[in-house]
Amino acid sequence: MLELPELELLRRELDREVAGRKIKSIAVGEKSALGSGTGPAAMASLEGAKATSVVRRPGVLAIGTDAGRRLVLELRGPAPFRRTKGDEPTAFTVTFTQGAPLRVLKGTVRATVVPEESFDATHPGPGGIDLAEGAVSWMVFARALVGRGGSLRSLLLDDTVIAGLGPVYVDEILWHAGLRPDRNVDQFGTQELRRLSRAVSEVLHEAMKAGGTTTDAYGFTDLGGKPGGYTDQLEVVGRVGKPCRRCRRGTVAVAKIDGKPATICPECQV
Ligand SMILES: [Zn+2]
């Protein structure tokens, strides 16, 4: 599943590429890419409509139209779209009256056409803090985390606390904060809460600025097929067995936290 920085980067890029353009045709090659209640006829009902803005929901990008219906794309892969030519298997293609078509790659999306008036009810926003909407103060951040129990890592992975973080960014954030993933937030003092809050904002900001992250296990690309530039700045993810760049004593390792693998520096994350 796409994590918040890449999901927001795709939203912005898609919005830039399609908003204001008139949909000429939608050619569905793979009916299995359509969700329940949406057949090729529902997709074709968007032909002639003008795309408005692209909005983000958890795991979803939705293209608005002036026809009163949204094309809702539930994302199932990290590189779902192409604006460039190529031979990747395509589930469906949206052609506009001007500009390059949008290809949605096979196996990456489940598409439905949803009436505008029911979209907010069928696709509510995230329950937790949405950091792509802007940074929050450390006190707002602390209030969301404290008193919920569980490990620090499990809290950061919980969408009802902070929206859209997955294993890549949670492990990077915890390294930057210098905190062990199995710590109990309820025992944190002000200083540790501030450090954690700062690390979350900084890592997400830098990752988005650099165009996101792409690893072997997380094959994100933009609409041109380009991988993310933050990959070079990763400190623990993808660096198991290598020396820690901060303390230079520790070796980046995998620890089992809540039964799941977490990548950490066992020396300087305390
Ligand atoms: Zn270290």
Quaternary status: single chain
Structural class: alpha+beta
Mean pLDDT: 95
* Helix amount: 25-40%
Structure in words:
This protein has helices at residues 4-18, 40-44, 116-122, 138-145, 152-157, 167-177, 190-209, and strands at 23-28, 51-57, 60-65, 69-75, 81-82, 90-96, 102-105, 109-115, 253-257, 260-264. The protein has 270 residues and is of the alpha+beta class. The strands form three sheets. A four-stranded antiparallel beta sheet has the order 1-6-7-5. The model has no long low-confidence stretch (mean pLDDT 95). It starts with a helix and ends in a 6-residue tail after the last strand. The protein has two domains: 4-122, MutM-like, N-terminal (N-terminal domain of MutM-like DNA repair proteins, Alpha-Beta Barrel); 131-264, Helicase, Ruva Protein, domain 3. β9 and β10 form a beta hairpin. Zinc ion (ZN) binds next to loops.
